[in-house]
Amino acid sequence: MSSVPGSTGLTIATSSMQDLRFGRQSMLRNLVTELIGVVLAMGHPAAPSASSADGELIEDLVAANRILADQGVLDGFGHVSARHDKDPSRFLLARSMAPALVTTADIMEFDLDGNPIDARGRTAYLERFIHSEIYKANPEVRAIVHSHSPAVIPFGVAGVPLQPIFHLGGFLGAGVPLFEIRTAGGPATDMLIRNPELGGALAMTLGSAPVALMRGHGDVVVGRSIREAVFRAIYTEVNARLTSEALRLGGEKVVFLNEEEAKAAAETNSAQIGRPWELWKTKARVQPR
Ligand code: MN
What we know:
By secondary structure, the protein is α+β, with helices and mostly antiparallel strands.
């Protein structure tokens, strides 16, 4: 009785030449099976890295990436994140890549200092500190969009406040603070929120508002869910575009929603978020579950 170790660590017992030959064949079979496994694994996306998070949350985050790209809020740049559903001291964010191309395998997990939990060689976004510091500062925030939303940029530089011009922009009625990076970072930054200090300063400017403008850069939009953050990011862009158009018409005075109207409209809208979400998913060709 002799023992031949198989390639998978199994031990194959042999008692004769015939059995020995069988043992060798078996080893070969094991080796081939293993090689096929390796080749298949190479061709398939890895399991989601944030595997401890709810699968539906990860799918919504992937959908949010694609929707925001499809709606022109994100392009090759910008990102959207979600707080981890089981561990509020962590959040989920794609690896550094164009949002329209994000899949579940690209979602990484971070702590609230912006450190990746298990990077596996994947590169993180330079501006992940926008997310880590806002989640740290405000426990109510469950999703964040950072974008260079094109119609919004002028409101960060022209001294014209962004106000709700129509009912779907009602959430802007609480006021939209403006982040000036020179205050925290001096006169010679590259405008990026590339460390926790700048992220903390941005979170402080945002406070409990749903949106903050970033001068010469873009904006940051938060929500109590991925869908709410996506809704707000899209309608911040639309509201900005409509306001510029109204101002260009050159009327005596543009009439915005007053505080009460904005508050009431925002409450009504927050119950309606599911409707456009389904439409946006279809337009962005997100596969139904
Ligand atoms: Mn940016």
